[in-house]
Amino acid sequence: xxxxxxxxxxxxAAAPAAAPWDGSGAPTHGEPVVDSFVGPAxxxxxxxxxxxxETLSAYVASVVSDNFKFHGCTCPAKPESVEPIEIGGEPGxxxxxxxxxxxxxxxxxxxxxxxxxxxxxxxxHAATDPTDRAVFSTLLSSVTFGS
Length: 147
Known about the structure:
This protein has two helices and nine strands; from the N terminus they run ββββαββββαβ. With 147 residues, the chain is an alpha+beta fold. 32% of the residues are buried.
C-alpha cells in the first residue's frame, strides 16, 4: 500500500495495513493504517506514509509536534535526540524519545510521500539502546522505495 519494501530480521512477522493513512494523527504499532512488524521478543516496528508538500525539515518538525499532540500523556514535547540518517537512499531523521519506554521514529520524504518508520521496546526505559538501535538501523538500511 505504501510503495516501500524492507527486510525483516529472522523471526520477525509482518502484518500489512488494512487501510491507508490519511496524513492526520500519529499512528503507532497495531493500528489499522500501519504496516506492523513484530519481533520474537519485546520490540515491534511499524511504517506508514501519506502525500506531503513539506520539506524534510518541516516534515520532521511535524512528526515531533504530532507525537506530542497525540502521545503527550506519555511522551515529552521534545525528543532526546534528532539525528540525520539515510532511509532508502533518501535523507531522513532518527528521532528518539523516552516515553517511559523506548520510542524511535525515523522520517523521510520520497516522491512527495512522507514516510514514518517507528520502533518501540517496552522492555527499555530510555530513549536509546544499542541493541534496539542496531535492529532498527538494519530495518531502515534495508528500505527500498517503489513507485
